[in-house]
Structures are given as structure tokens and as C-alpha cells.
Design brief:
The chain is mainly β and 31 residues long. It is 0% helix and 26% strand. The termini are far apart.
């Protein structure tokens, strides 16, 4: 995670994996 500069990348606890949280729907840009 520290090696990736993308602020949208993080840990999805529901899937137990690291991924783009915006495309996964965890981060909502409209809020």
C-alpha cells in the first residue's frame, strides 16, 4: 500500500483484499 501513490487504493475488509476503493463503491465521490 505504501508503494502505491493512488489515494483511492486501499484495503477492502469485506473482500479481504487490496483494491481501488472508488471503483469498488466504498469511496463515494459525491459525499
Amino acid at each position: 500500500v505504501l508503494a502505491i501513490d493512488d489515494v483511492r487504493y486501499g484495503y477492502n475488509a469485506a473482500k479481504d483484499q487490496f483494491e481501488d476503493l472508488m471503483s469498488a463503491g466504498i469511496i463515494d465521490p459525491s459525499k
